Amino acid sequence: xxxxxxxxxxxxxxxxxxxxxxxxxxxxxxxxxxxxxxxxxxxxxxxxxxxxxxxxxxxx
Length: 60
Description:
By secondary structure, the chain is an alpha+beta fold. The protein is built from two helices and three strands; from the N terminus they run βαβαβ. The termini are close together.
């Protein structure tokens, strides 16, 4: 299965608790931090909820 790199590019200040919790569940705490995840439907759904705060790069 493909993997994706998720990078936090914007702050979570003034965001809802749900969005903040989603970022933490993805493993993102600091701006500029990059994590890799398998491209499962669960992870893709989480990324879509916070797509305005992160950038995504697909890798194989």
